[in-house]
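yo, Biotin transport system ATP-binding protein is done. seq:
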Amino acid sequence: MIHSSLQLPRPGLQSAAGSTSVPLPAAPSPQASGAGRIEISAVSHRFTDTPVLRDITVTLTERRIGIIGANGSGKSTFARLLNGLLVPDRGRVVVDGLDTARDIKAVRRKVGFVFQNPDNQIVFPTVAEDLAFGLKGLGLGRAERAEMVTQMLARFGLEALADQSAHKLSGGQKQLLAIAGVLITKPACVVFDEPTTALDLRNTRHIAGVIAALSETAIVVTHDLDLISGFDRVLVFDAGRIVADDTPARAIAEYLRRMQ
Ligand SMILES: Nc1ncnc2c1ncn2[C@@H]1O[C@H](COP(=O)(O)OP(=O)(O)OP(=O)(O)O)[C@@H](O)[C@H]1O
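structure:
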């Protein structure tokens, strides 16, 4: 699980490692009914003297949104705005009417975040304990929490790994645990920051299938153009600005043109 000041909905894990036979997360939680509306208005941000995001205004409502662009173009910074991991220097980010600068707890209940490195999210010794951690503080009884953990383990085909040490999992399993740990809190939207970067082809395909099968809204930062090729909408970042906002085919074409 994740700790840290950034924290949000938590981690979870996946099953038999590199196995391709793990079932996709089928039954989404009843509360995870999708999209909602994330409005980014006149947002600028800088960490040092150099602006990282420059006057961005965009409204996100689609169920599958990809974010691509060159290294350092501001994609991860933008992603971290979406659930209030980062509050912009200028402008506003509003999730279903909730301002990330003021309503952080409510925003994080709605928008989960899966970090690039699952080790940043996995906190507890075993897979089941890590999943259960995400449910703390939600006002649920012990029996209800246990039932939700059981359901999430089953959803990801991880039952056999329930009592396994989370930190001994493979990279692919850890990434699945991280995703499960976020989903167990029933966010309506999940932001993924380069979810397949450290994975081999088999696990990359598995995670892509997991994301494709989600009922939750997914916003995915990636360099894997295949991953977002079937999405509803793709944003292309360049030097802190959105330079294309289009279908995957047209957005990818613009990105490739800029990369030449
Ligand atoms: N916490 C931070 N402190 C200082 N600078 C930062 C911080 N986070 C990001 N930056 C800088 O902001 C710029 C944009 O970083 P960001 O991670 O958003 O880019 P990115 O498009 O996601 O890049 P990549 O594709 O390489 O992951 C980079 O120059 C980066 O060094």
